[in-house]
């Protein structure tokens, strides 16, 4: 039986085939017409603002990018920026042509041929987006469209929103092209585009990744940065150098294809290493970050008072000039970090086998309960016991500066933080008050509390104010006072002692300050009165509250490093304090002056000339043979230097303030809580904790030819009559002011103290009476006669009444 094959008769006739083709063409036309109608409707709806108002011409004409304000040191170094978006706006002339060529070759090769929209590329992208559902970012957007997207970010997700956003960008790009020249659009784009890491604009990117300006970028550097625009993170040269180099070479290849590079140039630059010179400047890095925190508050106050409606610190691209010397700041930071690393290791070793809060376990428990981690565990409804157990688990990771990671429990982390030592350092020009160096702490990223402006007990750095008050109230540098420990019943039984336990002999005022003897300072403030000392401290520029109690003579007052530096300016500024300042001027982005520092009006001197000169000489003596002599013996500093150490009770705070004729410096060291400290004075005193920072600073300063002027120069020599006032020993076993019979029949110490006070007051009145006679023209024998037999005085003083 044979098989009969049937023929396909569906397209058997030509008419049938024509009918099918005609039907298919009608279907294609119908779909095309519907699609065109849909697109036209979409365009009309977008144009009418149904999906959101399009930016108008006035809006586009007034485009102004948020621009970071820059802060500069006195020697012209960029210190940091204030911003919402880390962007610098620059002109085309300041952008390398290689950047523009790389941008056009990579992102929009027909840029100078279209009017905002490249319809060939746009059609391809619309096909991919609408029909194929792909969301590829590039491929069709011109530079003008990308600028529109940067200026007016997209909203919504999905292909429908993508199509609407693309359509909006088309209209906006066309309007931009009608308003701006092609070169201006390139400028707007390069100042707007993001490079990741909160970096906006080509200038900021050039500074971040290559530590140079955009004007100096070579073809390889320009190609690296432009290559990042396709994917900020994936092509970041710091994070992914291999991917970044591949992308860079692709950009260079396109530059060659477009005629921006010849073959030899292309071959040269693709063989060039990335050579990243990464420099991140944010709130935690750059020059003097603690100072910039302070400066931000100062500038905001000025803007609010003078330009509240017209200037914005974070968006208007201001240029802020300061008094900071970047080289001095660098020297000081190196000195502080080097010393604090050694001191911190010593401190940890000092407490290696026990905790400082051993006698007060609730101290540590309170810190644990106030920690964020413990509060998190409690929010999970854990009991106290379970929360404490969870705090012992090694789940925290502490990043070391070396880059390694250390796993530790939250409890260990809290303990480590409590055992961390902190420091502050401030340096000013005493002639004009410019702040030259400001270091508020050991690490701004982890510890942002500023120890230049924070208040701690100041210890013996306050004693020079007490001694200056004594000198101005008639006492002399060579007046001797018993070193005995006294009981002051009028001050609730206050009985201060010396740290070394020695209470024998007598100290001159010069010796008492040189060797920082507590009993001498205490006796001085009792004699002249705490009110007198507080009044003088305020006249010397200390604005913080000072309690009117005698213990301030030993440094119980809580003051800031800024307070103390301000007071010490009196010793270098003819007895008048000068308030330290750090802001030179503020300019807007066009260079117009918004603020200029002006010299404050001179106030009345707090110290007379004689007292000022004597105090400087005594403080020089502190460095040469007193508590600060390690500056000579250990640090071998040759500069003409004066200063004062300070240590508070139980070694909770260490201080040193030192100065040459040209620079005044101060350092503080301590833990966050004063109850955590070294247990011995040898380790905890200011001469061991704070002085070495100043010592290292001056040690380097003397070796730096560019800044040697700060450590050179000498204090003016004392006039002969003042030099004679200092011609005495620091210490004596017997009271040098007593004659032979007084030593033989020495009275009790209470009577001796009263009598010494009377002698001092009689001497002061005699000097005052002598000046009065000279003003009246009475001199010679007649003056001597009147001084012996003249005016009788009431020698009973308020201190005598107290005693």
Number of strands: 19
Look at the helices and sheets and give the structural class: alpha+beta
Give start-end ranges of low-pLDDT stretches: 747-751, 792-803
List the total number of helices. 32
Strand-residue fraction?
A: 5-15%
Major beta sheet summary: 5 strands, mixed
The general outline is: elongated
* Broad CATH class of the domain at 421-582 and 607-732: Alpha Beta
CATH topology annotation of the domain at 421-582 and 607-732: Beta-lactamase
Mean pLDDT: 86
Chain-wise SSE layout:
Blueprint: H1 14-47, H2 57-61, E1 69-72, E2 78-82, E3 86-87, H3 97-107, H4 119-131, H5 143-151, H6 158-179, H7 182-192, E4 199-200, H8 202-210, H9 219-227, H10 241-257, H11 263-270, H12 289-306, E5 319-322, H13 326-350, H14 361-369, H15 372-379, H16 384-391, E6 396-399, E7 405-408, H17 410-418, E8 421-428, E9 435-439, E10 455-457, H18 463-472, E11 480-482, E12 506-508, H19 509-514, H20 518-528, H21 530-539, E13 558-560, H22 561-572, E14 583-587, E15 593-596, H23 609-625, H24 630-633, E16 642-647, E17 654-659, E18 664-671, H25 681-684, H26 686-689, H27 691-701, H28 720-725, E19 731-732, H29 740-744, H30 749-775, H31 780-789, H32 798-802
Parallel strand pairs: 1-5, 3-4
Antiparallel strand pairs: 1-2, 5-14, 6-7, 8-9, 8-18, 10-13, 11-12, 12-19, 14-15, 16-17, 17-18
Helix pairs in contact: 1-6, 3-9, 3-10, 5-6, 5-7, 9-10, 10-11, 13-27, 15-16, 18-20, 18-23
What does this structure look like?
The protein is of the alpha+beta class and 803 residues long. Among the domains are: 57-270, Penicillin binding protein transpeptidase fold, CATH 1.10.3810.10; 421-582 and 607-732, DD-peptidase/beta-lactamase superfamily (Beta-lactamase); 752-802, no CATH class. 46% of the residues lie in helices and 10% in strands. It is built from 32 helices and 19 strands. It has a 5-stranded mixed beta sheet, with helices on one face. Helix 5 (143-151) crosses helix 6 (158-179), helix 10 packs antiparallel against helix 11 (263-270) and helix 15 crosses helix 16 (384-391).
């Amino acid at each position: 039986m044979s098989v009969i094959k049937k023929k396909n008769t569906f397209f058997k006739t030509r008419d049938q085939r024509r009918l099918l083709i005609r039907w298919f063409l009608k279907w294609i036309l119908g779909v095309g017409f519907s699609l065109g109608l849909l697109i036209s409707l979409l365009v009309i709806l977008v144009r009418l603002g149904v999906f959101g108002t399009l930016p108008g011409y006035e809006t586009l004409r007034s485009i102004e990018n948020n621009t970071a304000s820059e802060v500069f040191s006195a020697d012209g170094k960029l210190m940091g920026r204030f911003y919402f978006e880390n962007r610098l706006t620059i002109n085309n002339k300041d952008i390398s042509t290689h950047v523009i060529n790389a941008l056009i070759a990579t992102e929009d090769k027909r840029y100078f041929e279209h009017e905002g929209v490249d319809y060939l590329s746009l059609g391809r992208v619309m096909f991919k987006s609408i029909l194929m559902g792909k969301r590829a970012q590039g491929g069709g957007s011109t530079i003008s469209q990308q600028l529109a997207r940067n200026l007016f970010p997209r909203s919504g997700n999905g292909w429908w929103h993508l199509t609407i956003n693309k359509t909006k960008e088309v209209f906006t790009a066309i309007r931009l092209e009608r308003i701006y020249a092609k070169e201006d659009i390139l400028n707007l784009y390069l100042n707007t585009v993001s490079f990741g890491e909160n970096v906006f604009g080509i200038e900021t990117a050039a500074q971040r990744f290559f530590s140079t300006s955009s004007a100096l970028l070579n073809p390889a550097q320009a190609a690296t940065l432009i290559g990042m625009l396709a994917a900020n993170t994936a092509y970041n040269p710091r994070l992914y150098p291999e991917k970044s180099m591949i992308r860079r070479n692709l950009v260079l290849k396109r530059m060659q294809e477009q005629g921006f590079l010849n073959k030899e140039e292309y071959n040269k630059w693709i063989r060039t290493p990335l050579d990243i010179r990464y420099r991140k400047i944010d709130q935690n890095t750059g020059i003097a970050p603690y100072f910039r925190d302070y400066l931000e508050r100062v500038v905001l106050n000025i803007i609010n008072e003078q330009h509240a409606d017209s200037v914005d610190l974070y968006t208007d691209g201001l240029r802020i000039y300061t008094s900071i010397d970047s080289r001095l700041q660098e020297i000081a930071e190196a000195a502080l970090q080097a010393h604090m690393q050694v001191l911190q290791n010593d401190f940890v070793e000092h407490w290696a086998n026990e905790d400082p809060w051993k006698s007060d376990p609730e101290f540590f428990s309170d810190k644990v309960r106030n920690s964020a981690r413990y509060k998190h565990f409690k929010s999970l409804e854990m009991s106290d016991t379970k929360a404490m157990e969870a705090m012992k688990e090694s789940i925290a990771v502490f990043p070391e500066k070396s880059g390694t990671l250390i796993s530790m429990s939250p409890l260990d982390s809290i303990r480590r933080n409590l055992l961390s030592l902190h420091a502050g350092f401030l340096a000013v020009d005493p002639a004009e008050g410019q702040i030259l160096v400001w270091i508020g702490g050991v690490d701004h990223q982890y510890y942002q509390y500023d120890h230049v402006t924070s208040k701690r007990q100041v210890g013996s750095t306050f004693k020079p104010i007490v001694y200056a008050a004594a000198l101005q109230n008639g006492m002399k540098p060579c007046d001797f006072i018993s070193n005995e420990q006294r009981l002051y019943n009028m001050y609730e039984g206050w009985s201060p002692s010396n740290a070394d336990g020695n209470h024998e002999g007598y100290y001159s005022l010069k010796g008492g300050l040189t060797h920082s003897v507590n009993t001498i300072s205490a006796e001085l403030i009792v004699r002249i009165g705490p009110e007198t000392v507080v009044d003088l401290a305020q006249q010397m520029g200390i604005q913080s509250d000072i309690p009117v109690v005698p213990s301030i003579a030993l440094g119980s007052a809580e003051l800031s490093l800024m307070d103390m530096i301000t007071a010490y300016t009196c010793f270098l500024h003819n007895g008048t304090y000068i308030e330290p300042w750090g802001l030179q001027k503020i300019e807007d982005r066009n260079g117009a002056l918004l603020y200029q520092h002006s010299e404050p009006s001179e106030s009345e001197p707090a110290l007379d000339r004689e007292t000022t000169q004597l105090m400087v000489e005594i403080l020089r003596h502190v460095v040469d043979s007193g508590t600060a002599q390690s500056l000579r013996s250990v640090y071998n500093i040759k500069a003409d230097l004066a200063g004062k150490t300070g240590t508070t009770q139980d070694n909770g705070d260490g201080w040193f303030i030192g100065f040459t004729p040209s620079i005044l410096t101060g350092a503080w060291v301590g833990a966050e809580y004063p109850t955590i400290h070294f247990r011995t004075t040898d380790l905890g005193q200011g001469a061991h904790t704070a002085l070495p920072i100043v010592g290292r600073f001056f040690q380097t300063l003397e070796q730096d030819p560019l800044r040697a002027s700060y450590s050179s120069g000498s204090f003016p020599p004392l006039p002969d009559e003042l030099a004679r006032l200092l011609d005495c020993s620091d210490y004596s076993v017997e009271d040098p002011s007593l004659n032979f019979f007084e030593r033989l029949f020495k009275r009790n110490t209470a009577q001796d103290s009263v009598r010494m006070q009377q002698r001092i007051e009689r001497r002061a009145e005699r000097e005052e009476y002598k000046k009065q006679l000279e003003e009246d023209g009475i001199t010679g024998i007649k003056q001597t006669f009147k001084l012996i037999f003249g005016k009788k005085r009431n020698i009973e003083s308020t201190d005598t009444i107290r005693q």
